[in-house]
Amino acid sequence: MTTTITAEEIPGTIDGIRMASQALYTPGLGEKELARDIESVLTYQILNQPRSQQKIIGPSEIGTDCEHCLAAKLAGWEQSEKGIAWAPTIGTAVHALFEEFFHRNQLRIIGQNPDQPVSMEAHRYWWEQKTMVGKIGDQEIWGSTDLIDLTVGATVDWKLVGKSVLDNYRRKGPTPQYRVQAHLYAKGWNDAGVKVDHVSIAFLPRTTIKFSDRYWWSEPYNEQIAVDALAKANQIHTNLKALEAISVEVRDNWISSLPRADHCRDCERFQQDWTPNAKPQVTNGVDMTLPTK
Questions:
Q1: For residues 15, 16, 18 and 23, what is the CA-based torsion angle, rounded to 10 degrees?
Q2: Residues 198, 75: one domain?
């Protein structure tokens, strides 16, 4: 007979575990049920993380060099993952761990002089703080900065990548998309009155065992990089609204005709885009090629 108990009745002790065991243990189950049910929990949580549910374009996407994907995102096209997004999940886990590390560091500084007023040094680092980087149309664009160093006046973005990608960044620097993202965050903080002079990305090894394999990239903040990226996104947004006034079909055909970046991994996530190699669309004899810059 199964006993029903509430969460409030289960103390956080061995006695509580014993009570739960007596209520839940089911004879006859084994490895099949073990793997199935645990993987079900993991799959559901991965697919339903807040970042997976994000609908509005964020700073990390505005700098893409794929005009097709930028327009599709701005139009609100549905995106789908092929399978479980495991690499991003590992990145999310590392972000959460680093948040804990910097929180512990703050508590350590405060704890050194518990009877004294809190030193401003304890507030040097701020993590996962949101800032508004600009607008696309009437929509405010907000993003969460991984880390801000108020002493240096810098933002930091954590990127967990494989060895070949890390080696490429070490040779050539970050992609335009990552670079734009960094400058957008800096723009947001400067607009809010927080002095940021430097942007940086810490590329961390995902597939090697040595932390020393990391690569640290940084450059002075350049507001124009952020402004230009927002201007391009706003131009595409304006085009989308004008075409949508004709019809959604015309808008979507235009999106499908836009140039795609080489090796773009996001194009295939827009399943409704049925013409991956489309030429500029012509509707009622009118060429629908519009400026995107």
A1: 150
A2: yes
